[in-house]
Specification:
Blueprint lengths: L3 H12 L3 E2 L23 H5 L1 E8 L4 E4 L13 E3 L3 E7 L4 E6 L4 E5 L6 E2 L7
Parallel strand pairs: 1-8
Antiparallel strand pairs: 2-5, 3-4, 3-6, 6-7
């Protein structure tokens, strides 16, 4: 859950060159509990360059950081545990994959936008 004003602050942060790493299903619900028709809600799908198209239960999902990811604090080839589910994303074709599930499906993407570096990590943790 997130308020619309908090969502606007996140958008502004990325537009000003900031980075966001978010968990799966960001702004699925607003502060009143109303579900968003697009996840992430409040237009954050455009900020991250991706939106959810499917979520499926998975007992122990694993996320593998790609060798070309260049993510501070996360070394290439690192395997991260998730919990409960995997979320399939539809991302802009220009977005670069930074990490994927063990199945090979992209789970963390970087927008190609020169002004922003928005990530969406769908770990389900």
């Amino acid at each position: 859950m997130l308020s619309e004003s908090a969502g606007n602050l996140l958008k502004e942060h990325v537009e000003n060159g900031g980075t966001i790493v978010a968990e799966a299903r960001l702004v699925w619900n607003d502060e009143r509990g109303h579900a968003s028709p697009v996840i992430p809600g409040f237009g954050l799908d455009r900020v991250f360059g991706a939106h959810e198209i499917l979520i499926r239960p998975e007992e122990k999902p694993k996320i593998v950081v790609q060798r070309s990811a260049d993510l501070p604090g996360l070394s290439a080839g690192l395997t991260l545990p998730g919990a409960a589910f995997e979320e399939q994303l539809e991302a802009s074709k220009e977005a670069r994959t930074l990490a994927s599930f063990s199945s090979g499906e992209a789970v963390m993407r970087r927008r190609p936008d020169g002004r922003t570096a928005g990530y969406w990590a769908c770990t389900g943790a």
